[in-house]
Design goal:
The complex is a heterodimer of chains A (192) and B (214).
Chain A: H1 2-15, E1 35-36, E2 42-45, E3 55-58, H2 73-97, E4 103-105, E5 111-121, E6 132-141, E7 147-156, H3 162-178, E8 188-189
Parallel strand pairs in A: 3-4, 3-5
Antiparallel strand pairs in A: 1-8, 2-7, 5-6, 6-7
Chain B: H1 2-28, E1 48-49, E2 55-58, E3 68-71, H2 86-110, E4 116-118, E5 124-134, H3 138-143, E6 151-161, E7 167-177, H4 184-200, E8 210-211
Parallel strand pairs in B: 3-4, 3-5
Antiparallel strand pairs in B: 1-8, 2-7, 5-6, 6-7
The chains are: A alpha/beta (192), B alpha/beta (214).
């Protein structure tokens, strides 16, 4: 009886999705236990991770995959545009925040940063929509392919433009990276 | 009688001259004040006007169903309307870079389940160009209003069969942002969604459209 109840509880837990289904753990790989923090919505870091002295290659992003709700054509239009720009934005910000700590390279490298957009709501007229953007970022070891860092985050755009909000967040992310993502340790286990 | 014959001949001559003048005047007229250059699309394109797409032509029997659209890069802007300044030109170049990815997104969403969209391969090539652009002025929109400082972008889009190069659809359209509540970019993505829905319906909207007048 007890075993049956445990199995049911486990099944319910497995059925739970993070960030209303926008966070798809399979994209990152197995063994990722996300934590929630004030600056990064969902983060996981491999114990012992360090960016210090490393060369980080920022890869192109693939076309967006809407893992949550279906979005309108206008949202997708903006999302595809943003996905093309993200690698350049990340390179620009990280070159600045990681200066003296790690090097950002376009080829080769010790670690690879890749990402994708998983949701986007474009600005609407008369405030009818709630513009937002959600993305996944992961850092893997260039040699082994092993996952080192997993990030899932959403920004809401109210008064600022999408670009301003994203650049602000990227700066925070860059500073966290500079500290080897130590902030993840103070995060709470993600439950929803 | 002889006099009558001469007057008929003079009358006919004047008539021919007048007809020639009308014809020349007609030929001199252009679509969308010269912004629409039919030669970019190819011969035998008879544009029609619709509510959602300013000028549209489709090949008879055109269908998007189960096709794969290759969204190609856009050609450099060509200003076919009035003279524009450096700011307008810069905006046109920016839009030229952005349009393929925006179009890929809008069409991927609106054609989902009907056709595929790709940046690398496909059997229908979709490309375009900006033919007029005004960056506008946000300050004039706010301070003056009444259309002052309006931003606009006018563009051509064509769909061609990749294998034969045959033109399948021709589009010429202008979007305008007349108030400070919107940017021309917002108007473009909204129109792309409308365009995507029309493509989903095989651009059937052309059938009920009226022939374009110069």
């Amino acid at each position: 009886m007890a075993l049956a109840l445990l199995a049911l509880a486990g099944a319910a837990e497995e059925g739970k999705t993070l960030d209303d289904g926008r966070l798809e753990p399979a994209w990152f790989g197995p063994g990722v236990e996300f934590r929630t923090t004030s600056e990064i919505d969902y983060v996981w870091v491999k114990p012992g991770f360090s960016i210090k002295g490393k060369k980080l290659r920022v890869e192109k992003w693939p076309d967006p995959v809407f893992t949550g709700k279906d979005r309108r054509g206008r949202d997708a239009a903006r999302a595809y545009e943003l996905a093309e720009n993200m690698p350049l934005r990340i390179r620009s910000v990280l070159r600045h925040t990681l200066e003296g700590t790690a090097q950002i390279v376009t080829e080769g490298g010790d670690q690879v940063l890749s990402g994708r957009l998983v949701d986007y709501v474009a600005k609407g007229t008369m405030g009818k929509s709630n513009p937002q953007s959600t993305w996944d970022i992961k850092i893997t070891d260039a040699g082994s392919g092993e996952l080192l860092v997993a990030v899932h985050h959403r920004t809401l755009m109210s008064l600022s433009t999408v670009e301003e909000r994203i650049d602000m967040w990227l700066e925070k992310f860059g500073k966290a990276l500079k500290e080897d993502m130590a902030m993840a340790a103070s995060g709470k286990p993600a439950t929803s | 009688m002889k006099r009558n014959w001469r007057s008929i001949r003079v009358g006919s001559f004047l008539g021919i001259l007048a007809a020639g003048a009308v014809l020349a005047g007609g030929e001199g007229k252009k679509f969308d004040k010269g912004r629409l250059d039919p030669s970019w699309f190819g011969p035998s394109v008879e544009f029609r006007t619709t509510d959602d797409i300013d000028y549209l032509w489709i090949k008879s029997g055109f269908s998007i169903k189960s096709r794969k659209l290759l969204i190609d890069k856009w050609s450099d802007p060509v200003f076919l309307g009035e003279e524009r300044d450096a700011k307008d030109s810069a905006k046109a170049s920016e839009l030229t870079e952005l349009m393929p990815s925006r179009m890929r997104g809008a069409l991927a969403a609106t054609l989902s389940g009907a056709a595929e969209v790709s940046r690398d391969e496909g059997d229908i090539v979709v490309t375009g160009r900006i033919v007029d652009c005004s960056a506008g002025s946000k300050a004039a929109k706010i301070l003056v209003g009444m259309g002052a400082g309006a931003a606009s972008a006018t563009f051509d889009i064509k769909l061609t069969d990749k294998a034969s190069g045959e033109l399948l659809a021709a589009i010429h359209h202008r979007v305008i942002s007349g108030t400070a509540m919107s940017e021309v970019d917002d108007k473009i993505v909204k129109w792309l969604e409308i365009f995507g829905k029309a493509v989903h319906d095989d651009l059937g909207v052309a059938a009920s459209a009226k022939p374009a007048k110069k």
